[in-house]
Structures
1.
Amino acid sequence: MSRQAIICGNWKMYKTIEESKSFVKSLAPLIEPSQALVYLAVPFTAIKAAADEAQETPIVIGAQNMNDISEGAFTGEIAARMLKDAGAAFVILGHSERRQIFGETDEFIRRKVTKAFQEGLEPIVCIGENLKEREAGHAHDVLQKQLEGSLPTLTASQIQSLVIAYEPVWAIGTGKVATAEIAQTTHQFCREWIKSKYGPEAASAVRILYGGSVKPDNITELMQQPDIDGALVGGASLQPDVFSQIIHY
Ligand code: PGA
């Protein structure tokens, strides 16, 4: 089965509404035709404007986080329904910055994934080991624990729309990209885990993105690996010309 690649920008806490609109306007003519699906995870405040601007383009707009509850007294939180309403089609869940800085647990992330599926938002579920864990030779154990903890029991159709992002924490924003070999071995491990739990069809359907210092000069080699189905791009997704070079890997 051939999997359609996804190149997803993750803007983190960057860009106002006007900046987001002008980015989408500049990016759109640069990406057609594109062999990959182009996703942009923008700040909550810019979702509506970016989604409106992206309407006649292939760009898909999404969010970077959400709560797992439908509504209620949770000051400062945002619900899946609100993201959908604003025009989000997908949501990044369990990014390492959420896990590390804001203390999100596998259990919390699992509830969010369940909610995203219920509300029809495509979840991009992030996992990744830190440098100490990698150096101690525990990377695969850590990833397996995160996969087991962060993913609910999935149906066949949920597997089709699930996206996993492997982002080694030591490679995020550090300029230190995992070698294509490390990335491939790790992606293969994740796919094997899906296979052991859901069978070969599910394993060949699930998309696994790599994230961590992806740039125009390393994307080609990464995308040549058989188990890498795309990229989650932080810093290099903030300028349309740089991001479009990654999209045309
Ligand atoms: P980076 O971030 O590309 O700036 O390393 C990736 C991410 O955190 O998703």
2.
Amino acid sequence: MADIGKWVEVLAEAERRREPIGPITEGDPTLDLDAAYDVQRARIAQRLAQGERIVGAKLGLTSKAKQVAMGIDTPIFGVLTDAMQLDAATPLPLGELIHPRAEPEIAFVLGEDLSGPGVTAHDVIDAASGVCAAIEVIDSRYVDFRFTLADVVADNTSAARFVLGTTLVDPRSVDLTLLGVVVETDGVVSDTAAGAAVLGHPATAVALLANQMGAWGEHLPRGATVLSGGLTNAVAVASGHHLTMSFAHLGQIFLRSG
Ligand code: OOG
Ligand code: MG
């Protein structure tokens, strides 16, 4: 049986020291997907004991672009805490991160609880108090972002930081499938996508998470922010970079590194 506590420590230490590690499944082939979610839960429990607060959840690997880039085609679920949220005006603290990458996402803010099973994309739209633009900054604790499905799940799906846009839009008032996004690095367009890139509709991703949580005996609470997954592949953020992510209807988010 996988040693959950050991892997929590190994991952926490990699994050603290900013020293990426090899895939933990290579050290322990018994670490399956269920055990990996146990590692993730135990690491989050450790963060809560250190004073952090859960503010939401995230999906990963929900777009073809991300699935192809990372070589894994199964959507994954992670947890967001208050310590991960950055103010749009705050430069990305490169000194606290290993090899950050940024990706544009559509975030849902829930006005009502969502409890699976049986949650549909329509239920998600009905439960949302709004959607907003988001940049997720991922920072794998593994060397070169090289991992299997179980590795990345254990690593809380590479979650590191996130920035939310300030415009909250009623998801009933826009067609999220057609919502365009343009990614610019230092003024040069590096990627483009539309909302449909995420599982055909980003609300489908949130429904998937609510149903998975139902199977775990958990639910998505009112007030939670849910990142529905990168619409494009992620871009590396190096010192002095300026990223601009522009979303139809939801506005722009700027990210500079410090
Ligand atoms: C895994 C996390 C993926 C997304 O939005 O697809 C993710 C990774 O790419 O390191 O957050
Ligand atoms: Mg992401």
3.
Amino acid sequence: VSTLLVEVDGARLLQRLEALGRCGLRSGERYRALYDDAWVEATAVVASWIEEAGLRVRRDAVGNVWGRLEGTAGGRVIVTGSHIDTVRGGGTLDGALGLVGGIEALAALRWIGVRRTVETVAFCEEEGSRFDTQFWGSRAVIGDITPEEAERSRDGDGTTLAAAMRARDLDPARVREAARDDIDTFVELHIEQGPFLDEEGPRLAVVTAIAGTAHLEVEVRGVPDHAGTTPMSRRRDALRGAAAMMEAIAAVARDQGDPAVATVGRISVEPSQVNVVPGVARFSVDARHSVEAERRRLAAAIVQACERVAAERGLAVHITPLREREVVPTDERVSAVLRDACRAADIEPRPMPSAALQDSQIMAVRSAMGMIFVPSIGGRSHRMDEATKPEDIVLGTRALATALAMLAR
Ligand code: HGY
Ligand code: MN
Ligand code: MN
């Protein structure tokens, strides 16, 4: 049976993405972080759009915003959506597309009618930009957060996540109430955030797996010394050791080949003085691969490379694994529906892994999960000039609406 592509209000979709993009825009930089003022503004705007779509709006115990389209058959729920927060200096589409597109898709489904109940969600946080936690919204939904974590996690100013919740009239003691066990399917529309669809096409992809990560903290210890009196040959400079490790880490990922990637994104030095040879250097490593065995091999090779450099330079190195996230495959049955929805638009979607982390990988713990990607112009994301062609934004949303209609039949 051939499926008809569901129509959505493309003009309104594009307008709303622009409007949401203005939340958190200050002196040319966009930043919408969990429970900050821009976040409050954005959640209010999204709630109003959900109501406008004729859906029942609900805010849960962590501030996720839900819209519900009741099906005639009841039963377990199909959910679509994405995250409302951004990185510092983020764009208008990462996360926003999935939740604004979700609202548009449900607005369209409301006219078609659904047998199964479908909901859309704006997850309160995914990026880990403000607090030392990540996926706060989706982890709440699968029951993977605790009040203790809210008390423990702090932002750069020392504010606890719990205090930030209280400031928004949310009770951190009740975060477990956001958990649900009635969601059996989760579908997310997202921008690719990489260059492949833009460069090589087609205009739609169906995600095969979400890359796994290894986050490490590397501490390099040398000897602090006088920057004037210590000859170069006698130094055990922790920062130069760290610099050599960073190059070695990049070489490990490059040698393993795509889609292996490794990033050092945070660094600190002690004593951090102009005239003292650094005694300690600490840096983070984010290593990713979309094949689980390769992800493990990459992480192990990075550890080895750091140890080798340390040994060569007479430095001590201590590596702490911060967090491991395994590769998460998408659900084959859901993906088959997503492929059919893309075909309704006359596009044979490209199967591809997600190199970025996604709320979907969390939702997959309890639900059959699938994702649709649209191209990112120049592969640009996590930056202000993140963009997707308007016609691709509309196309992706139509494919999402079509897939939801099929799943809700
Ligand atoms: O880090 C990630 O991949 C995601 O965009 N938060
Ligand atoms: Mn995202
Ligand atoms: Mn992101």
4.
Amino acid sequence: MARARYLLRARDKTLELGLRTRLMAVVNVTPDSFSDGGRFLSPERAVEHGLRLVEAGADILDIGAESTRPGAIPVSEEEELERILPVLEGLRRETAIPVSVDTYKARIAEEALRLGADIVNDISALRFDARMATVAAEFRAGVVLMQMRGTPASMHRLSPSRDILSEVRRDLQVAVDKATSAGIARDRMLLDPGIGFGKNAAENLVLLNRLTELAGLNLPILVGPSRKSFIGGILGRPVQDRLLGTAAASAVCILRGSHLLRVHDVGEIGQVARVVDAILAEQIET
Ligand code: HH2
């Protein structure tokens, strides 16, 4: 099945989606992210890391300063700004690549957009901060609408969903309607089923296997399977040793219609994507 083609607009940038799989590269400036926390805490190191990811083939850099894993330390707005803004400034000086900011707080998004970010990656799909939709609309930013069951504090205590796919689809449609009412154009939206966010391992597998059923929402799909615990659950491997599992999950995402993957291992998953894209196109150059 051919992937639908889209143009994503984000501020004054345009990204062609659907021909080849795009990679959103994770730049975590947190002390406690589940897989790379603490590694790139100084702005200089985070900028260097971001530039290496660009060289490795990233299409978007996603800067995040607050871990959402269970038990993560909550971060004040001031702290989040102090972590994100110098990295964003540094990257903006060095590269024109689209930059997204992984935050659900309107103030952080606003300051980052002012400094030249292009996309807001909101893991709450506009639910946690009433001002987020207006801020994104005002700056004509791209917006990732990611489905999460509950909140980061509650999501690991939820009872299983009766029908995870219908729940994700319904919540994403609600988010799209909210974004539309706030004046965000459809060609600025990306949808994400939120792998690991309030879903148990089996639910994550259902979402990945039945990803094509989100295509009916008629918007591009981003998926973030990278190094996540459902892979650890299958393979019994720690977070540093989940590259092959991530590769397998990434290949399935692409086969099932994902336009973008949010990944830590850009070079390696880029190779997976190129091979899967070539097979789907039945030609070497896609
Ligand atoms: N996953 C994480 C964070 N942000 N954003 C989107 N759109 N989709 C995802 O699947 C997603 C996300 C969690 O991964 P990571 O950033 O590596 O960990 P942490 O939350 O511990 O910083």
